[in-house]
TrEMBL record:
<dbReference type="GO" id="GO:0005975">
    <property type="term" value="P:carbohydrate metabolic process"/>
</dbReference>
<dbReference type="InterPro" id="IPR011013">
    <property type="entry name" value="Gal_mutarotase_sf_dom"/>
</dbReference>
<dbReference type="InterPro" id="IPR008183">
    <property type="entry name" value="Aldose_1/G6P_1-epimerase"/>
</dbReference>
<dbReference type="GO" id="GO:0030246">
    <property type="term" value="F:carbohydrate binding"/>
</dbReference>
<dbReference type="GO" id="GO:0016853">
    <property type="term" value="F:isomerase activity"/>
</dbReference>
<protein>
    <submittedName>
        <fullName>Aldose 1-epimerase</fullName>
    </submittedName>
</protein>
<comment type="subunit">
    <text>Monomer.</text>
</comment>
<dbReference type="InterPro" id="IPR014718">
    <property type="entry name" value="GH-type_carb-bd"/>
</dbReference>
<keyword id="KW-0106">Calcium</keyword>
<dbReference type="Pfam" id="PF01263">
    <property type="entry name" value="Aldose_epim"/>
</dbReference>
Length: 257
C-alpha cells in the first residue's frame, strides 16, 4: 500500500488503484467490501462498454480484436515507476496480440484470453496539490492507434439525498439507479459537482463526457469517458474510437473537495 500526504489530505493507492482519499479525516472513496462494487477505481481501455452481443469481437482498422467489457487494461498489472511524498507514477505496457487472461472467464465470459491489435503504453500519475488530487493519464503508441478511454472511480455517499450537478442539470441518485447497467449519460460535460454530506468537484480535460453508475445508495461512480458506448450497437463500438496523433495523448482528472 502506497500513501501520499499533503497537509490535511491523504491518498492511499494499492497497485495503482485509488483506494482512499481523505481530507480532514473525511473519506471520499468507496471502500472495498462495502455494498455496491468490488473495486474503488479502474480504467476502461482500449474500449468502453460491453461486448457480449458482439461475441467479444471489436473491429479495428488493423484486424478484429477480442475484448471483454471495458477492455483489457484492467486485467494487466501496474508497475510503479516513481514515488514522492505527494505523487506517484504507475505504468502498463502492452505488445500487440499478446494474450491477456480474462478474469471474467468462465463465470461471466466464454473468452479465456483477450488481445488488442496495437502496441500501447499507459501511464497513471497521481499528484496531491493544495487544491486537491490530480490524476493524469498518458496514452502512448504508434500514430493512428485507435482507442477509447474511461476512468471509473467510485465515491462514497453519506446522505440519502445526494445530488449530482452537471451544468444547469441536477441528477438524483434515483435517476441513476433507474438506468441500471447502461449507466446514465452526461454528454458534452467537463465538470461535475457531487453534493453530499460534503461536496466534491470532479473536473476533466480531454474526455468530454461523463457517465454515472450505481446499484446501491451508498456509492456512485462518476466516470469521465471519451465515448458513451450505449449510443451504438455493440458490434459498432469502433464508431467511438479516437486515434493517437503524435504518439501520445494526455487526459486529466481533478478531484477537488
Amino acid at each position: 500500500m502506497l500513501e501520499l500526504k499533503l497537509e490535511k489530505q491523504s491518498v492511499k493507492i494499492d497497485a495503482g488503484e485509488l483506494v482512499g482519499y481523505k481530507v480532514d479525516a473525511h473519506e471520499y472513496i468507496h471502500q472495498k467490501g462495502s455494498p455496491g462494487w468490488r473495486s474503488s477505481d479502474t480504467e476502461m481501455f482500449p474500449i468502453i462498454g460491453p461486448t457480449t452481443e458482439a461475441k467479444f469481437q471489436v473491429q479495428t482498422p488493423r484486424d478484429i480484436a477480442v475484448q471483454d467489457q471495458h477492455g483489457l487494461l484492467r486485467e494487466m498489472e501496474y508497475e510503479l515507476i516513481s514515488q514522492t511524498e505527494t505523487g506517484a507514477i504507475f505504468q502498463k505496457e502492452y505488445q500487440a496480440h499478446t494474450l491477456v487472461k480474462n478474469s471474467k472467464y468462465p463465470e461471466k465470459s466464454n473468452r479465456e484470453y483477450l488481445f488488442w491489435t496495437y502496441d500501447f503504453g499507459f501511464q497513471k500519475q497521481f499528484s496531491l496539490t493544495e487544491s486537491g488530487l490530480e490524476i493524469t493519464f498518458v496514452v502512448s503508441g504508434e500514430r493512428d492507434s485507435p482507442f477509447m478511454l474511461g476512468y471509473h472511480p467510485a465515491f462514497k455517499l453519506y446522505s440519502e439525498n445526494a445530488q449530482i450537478i452537471a451544468g444547469e442539470k441536477t441528477i438524483s441518485l434515483e435517476e441513476i439507479l433507474a438506468v441500471g447497467n447502461r449507466a446514465f449519460e452526461v454528454p458534452d460535460c467537463n465538470e461535475i459537482l457531487l453534493k453530499d454530506e460534503k461536496q466534491l468537484r470532479i473536473k476533466t480535460k480531454g474526455f468530454g463526457n461523463f457517465m454515472l453508475w450505481t446499484e446501491v445508495s451508498n456509492m456512485v461512480c462518476i466516470e469521465p469517458i471519451t465515448f458513451y458506448p450505449y449510443a451504438v450497437e455493440q458490434r459498432n463500438l469502433n464508431e467511438g474510437f479516437r486515434y493517437l496523433e503524435d504518439g501520445a495523448k494526455t487526459f486529466k482528472v481533478w478531484i477537488t473537495p
